[in-house]
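Translate structure to sequence.
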């Protein structure tokens, strides 16, 4: 399914400063796609990024010494490494162009029905042989701790490498976003959803393995339960996950992720323009997860 197939591209809402063209929301999805998202808690968009675009993104990330240095590694409890690098502000490099481009941001705005801002992005560095497993969780299970009253957030996972069952593709529990927020607790170094609820949910809901080609994207709701297995294969499974919060869901307290910060959208062509320009490709400020991430730590020893 190509995202552009039945694209009407009509401006549906106007938000933000009067006359600000970048704040128009163009219709990216058909009403059937929005219905699918609302029913399932996720939506696949195959080929959202072209081979050249995703190649430039992957090449930039793989040569990004700062990203490598900034990455945090957690033990998955079975001896494998869960590794990621995270940044709060999208910036003007190729990561920023991907997370600010219309086909992504307008899609998220269409799903949430209002203006959104960039909550953070992260590169999941699931390396061959050593890449660790992610426990079942809802993103809102973490983010609830950050002063967000509503689960009005959407994440967009963009496959940088092909994701397969063998290299630990994402798994989602179809329709689980309708369960509301499940309690999360810290187990080892990872926060995960209460397994009694997960086990019962798994008896009733379909577990979907999100096999993706490089450039495919998965839009998913912040209460969609998801996990992934370790990567025992010879193939890395890197993925960029861009997370957005609704403007009306501005957090009531400060945390290590930003409150409402206007997102300046860019035209889709900018991914290639910036990606092809050696001087402009990289550049974001990476966060120090170990010191700054209070949302998982605050779950230690708590039931909530
Ligand atoms: C995440 O939930 O943030 C990452 C999961 C994965 O990449 O498998
Ligand atoms: Mn997650």
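Result:
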């Amino acid at each position: 399914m190509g995202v552009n197939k039945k694209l009407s591209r009509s401006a549906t809402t106007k938000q933000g400063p009067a006359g600000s063209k970048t704040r128009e929301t163009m219709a990216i999805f058909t009403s059937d796609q929005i219905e699918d998202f609302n029913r399932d808690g996720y939506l696949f968009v195959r080929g959202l990024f072209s081979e050249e675009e995703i190649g430039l993104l992957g090449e930039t990330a793989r040569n990004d010494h700062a990203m490598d240095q900034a990455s945090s590694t957690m033990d998955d409890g079975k001896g494998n490494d869960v590794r990621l690098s995270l940044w709060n502000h999208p910036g003007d490099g190729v990561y920023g162009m991907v997370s600010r481009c219309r086909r992504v941001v307008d899609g998220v705005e269409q799903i949430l029905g209002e203006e959104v801002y960039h909550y953070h992005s992260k590169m999941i560095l699931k390396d061959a042989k050593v890449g660790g497993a992610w426990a079942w969780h809802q993103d809102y299970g973490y983010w609830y701790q950050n002063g967000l009253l509503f689960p009005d957030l959407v994440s967009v996972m963009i496959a940088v490498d092909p994701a397969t069952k063998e290299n630990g593709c994402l798994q989602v529990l179809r329709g689980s976003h309708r369960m509301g927020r499940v309690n999360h607790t810290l187990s080892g170094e990872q926060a995960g959803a209460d397994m009694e609820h997960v086990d019962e949910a798994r008896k009733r809901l379909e577990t979907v393995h999100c096999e993706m080609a490089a450039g495919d994207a998965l839009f998913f709701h912040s209460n969609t339960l998801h996990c992934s297995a370790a990567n025992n294969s010879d193939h890395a499974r890197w993925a960029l996950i861009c997370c957005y919060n609704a403007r009306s869901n501005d957090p009531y307290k400060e945390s290590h992720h930003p409150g409402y910060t206007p997102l300046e959208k860019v035209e889709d062509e900018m991914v290639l323009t910036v990606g092809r320009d050696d001087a402009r490709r990289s550049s974001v400020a990476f966060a120090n997860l170990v010191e700054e991430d209070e949302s998982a730590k605050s779950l230690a020893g708590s039931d909530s």
